[in-house]
Model the fold of this input.
Amino acid sequence: MLMVMQSVACNGLHSAEQRCCRWLLMTHDRIGADEFMLTHEFLAMMLGVRRPTVTLVLTELNRSGVLSYVRGRMRITDRRRLEAASCECYRQTRASFQRLLPWAPGITLANSYERGGDFSAPIMERMSDVSRKPE
Done:
């Protein structure tokens, strides 16, 4: 419920670029890989904007070296700059997840990323470590 309320507020207050960065970061956290499939059309639906708006935002992020994309394949190349371009809603949502669901896969993967974790291991192997709830 908290995430829904945060998303509603974010959609009303922040630019398409900031919301796009937030969505890319949340996707990166959940997938746990720097490269993933994501079309402009799908991202436009998730952000509630027109597809050309997403194309403009992603073109600028690509030009600045934050990410690269080719035909639906996104690759985050500079996560720190992507976080800086995002609104504070990403940090709020992430902090809530960490507080309420510290064992959740997306949060654990994000924490692993911050510690310089190895994302080359198969995802199911990493998921088995986080599927155990804290004692």
